[in-house]
Amino acid sequence: MEKTQTSKSAVENVLNVGRMAKTVIAANGFSRSTQTPEKTEGQSQFNMRQAMGLDPRLGKILSKVSIRHQGTQAWQLSQAATSNYIDQTEVDLAVAGISRDGFYVFNQRASAQQIDALVKFAEQTQCEARGARTPLEVYPRSNPAAGRYDIHEQQALQSPEVQDFATDPAMALISQKYLGQPVIMDEVAFWWTTTKKTEDADLNAQLFHQDRDRLSFLKFFMYLTDVDTMTGTHVYVKGSHKKIPRSLRADGRMNDSAVQKAGLGGNITELHGLAGTIMAVDTIGLHKGKTPVTTDRLALENEFATSLFGMDYEIPKFEPTELVRKRYAEMPWVLQRYRNSVAN
Q: Is 31 helix (H, G, I), strand (E, B) or coil?
């Protein structure tokens, strides 16, 4: 049995080397298009995800080989000091922390006013019960039926505070410095996690996994409720953004015992924090959200990637604030998904 498994793994590695070469060609073609393609072909998405199983650092290498940016505009950013969420003195500390551990928890938290506005917005905005296939509804906080409720990006951007977080220039700068390339803000996620439907841990990203939706990327999370081991903490396997045992490299979910068996139990780190805690996380490393036990959790996330090559991306329609219009004028490459909304 063990020899058979080893043989299958060897064959898969050979196939993934071929997929890696195809990924370089596809990503290079994507980046050289005169207009950003509307989507990445499905086979190319599959090739990328499978090839990234060879090594957690591979996506960043392939990005630097294949993603070409024309001119200096792609590097242009608003001043990090204008961030309303990140203290610019933490920029280099964050880059060093992510490089070392795979994550960094910021010392500065969001203000009480920002937290209150975001929570109230989330309590009043329609969302989708993940996996339920039911119409959008306002989150039934007193009696949720699903394990996770997602506020879609287009709805989330009706909040000025979400717009501010999504377009944060200090986060963009940290991503640039860490990834070593110009970045694009490629997604916003805003969701409630509940104590219900523990059997849906796979669906709700509550088992260990890697994110492989882009070649090279960095995420920023903000807790909007107090989070500890009983209320849905983010869990990260420290150092797994650089090295993952072969037994854990499959593109899928895995339970705690698999991580323990691979000898990484001592690296499992729970990232607790009060409401307003912000963290930068390289989710190519093994991570999961812990299932809440005592009460629900609300979190907001954005992602900066070196290209839109990979997973299908959204072009949301919304009314930008004056702050977002100003930031778009200063960093149009980073905020290119919002071009149409700013132009209207």
A: helix
Mean local confidence (pLDDT), 212-233: 97
Domains and CATH numbers, the chain: 73-343 (2.60.120.620)
Gap between the Cα atoms of 318 and 343, Å rounded: 11
Tokens coding 139: 């989150």
What integer is the mean pLDDT of 212-227? 98
User: What are the phi and psi torsion angles at 297 (to 5°)?
Assistant: -130, 140
Angle of helix 58-66 versus helix 2-32 axis, rounded to 10 = 30
Q: How far apart are CA 165 and CA 145, in angstroms?
A: 29
Residues listed for the chain: 344
Q: Where are the alpha helices (DSSP H) in the chain?
A: 2-32, 42-51, 58-66, 91-101, 112-124, 153-156, 160-166, 169-179, 256-261, 322-330, 339-343
- Residue 321's pLDDT band (boundaries 50, 70, 90)? very high
Taking residues 164-170, report their average pLDDT: 98
State pTM to two decimals: 0.94
Q: How far is CA 151 from the centre of its chain?
A: 15
CB atoms within 10 A of CB 121: 19
Whether 309 has a pLDDT exceeding 90, the answer reads yes
Is residue 24 left, alpha or beta, with left meaning phi > 0 and alpha meaning psi from -120 to 50? alpha
Per-residue pLDDT at 202 exceeds 60: no
Q: Interhelix angle for 58-66 vs 42-51, to 10°?
A: 130
